[in-house]
């Protein structure tokens, strides 16, 4: 009985010490500053010169596997950070969302007819808490309840945003401050993700983050501040990398006195967790509708997460880069009367790159990449990084079309139309053509210079099928596209949207079949690729050597 009593007392004391030490650690934090950088990818912070971000990871906690929400566009993902919930609950499905103009209503609302955000939750917990929102993208202001934000500003550029943030920190010392920077997203769309100009934008984000952290030291609140550094999405090519790891995996960094140092968070982190973690710091009760959870294991005094199942893949920054590649994200390319030299690199610190050239997924037994090699015929190159720790990266791929001495009828015909106010593929029967010609492939590459805003195109020809069977066709387009085989609609990828893929299947007999692709570009960058897979054909861009223009 005596031993049981002693054990109980020891257990009680240990629990009391843990609780009080935890409360003491959490009590240090009186300010939370979220530094949000639009379109800053994991690959961006790892490959750019980012000394501040690396310092914060070394002396804080981080996850390089944080997942965002679909669709991979800004508004739904910033809303996920602000409301700890996804699009099905918030109703914020696009960048066009407005409080008075939406399709899907939020599942629950506050007294102001909004889904409860972090500003609302904090103010309802303690009205004396000072809140602020400083953002570069004006659309960010549509996403939160202004009634519960004490200080807010929309700034013209990243420099003005940082200056305003520093001013607010020094003069007002807000308890909760949410910052939005936009320069990485702009660079990604204009130049392409992971290009030198994009990496410069990431380096600027690192510099500005350093200035903001230093401003808290000058304001005398650094030791009481938790910094959360995060992004809404990454990107691939000139778009957000929709449904790719490069687009859906973002960095998440916690930095402050109460945070474990050099701690790679073993638990899954989601954008939902930004608001949940912020509420946790201020001991605010989270709404039942919120989907996020605090990243408790990153704080001193808290143990490791339980019931972890499986292991993360190698970070997205380790995904091999296959060259040649283009700023629009296309890897491989068309080679007429020439060989293609393939180079593969990875930022992985150890391990090996393994690759295939037949479209199959690399395994631990696939060929090890050692030096550049030549592709002499059309094919699909795939590569993956295999770390010495047993982790494997996602697979990268390149579509190589190598054509020797194309005949006069190789490729397809195209007809171009100049239109106005396009939001979908137009009715071509009522339009007058502006120009026409021939192109080797059904894409925008060869004729990009002719495609401006409100331009529509029709590609027509024949596709030569070698074997009876079921074939799957896809269009990858920005904006809308439709693909027909023998007059039958197989792929409907219509509408005004970013780079998006849709597919469809049909049974085809050996021989020639009519192929027609309709496409439009409403504005901004144009992009179209058409892919095929079927008997003996791994998924790849439709090669000119099976297309005829008559």
Strand order of the largest sheet: 4-3-5-1-6-7-2-8
Please give the alpha-carbon distance between the first and last residues. 96 Å
Low-confidence stretches: 8-25
Mean pLDDT: 90
Principal-axes geometry comes out as globular
**CATH H level of the largest domain: which superfamily?**
Alkaline Phosphatase, subunit A
Biggest beta sheet summary = 8 strands, mixed
CATH class bucket of the largest domain: Alpha Beta
The percent range for strand residues is 25-35%
Q: Can you name the CATH architecture of the largest domain?
A: 3-Layer(aba) Sandwich
Overall description:
- By secondary structure, the chain is α+β, with helices and mostly antiparallel strands.
- It folds into three domains: 28-298, 3-Layer(aba) Sandwich (Alkaline Phosphatase, subunit A); 316-403, Immunoglobulin-like; 412-548, Jelly Rolls (Sandwich), CATH 2.60.120.1560.
- The chain is built from eleven helices and 27 strands.
- A hairpin with a 2-residue loop joins strand 25 and strand 26 (537-541).
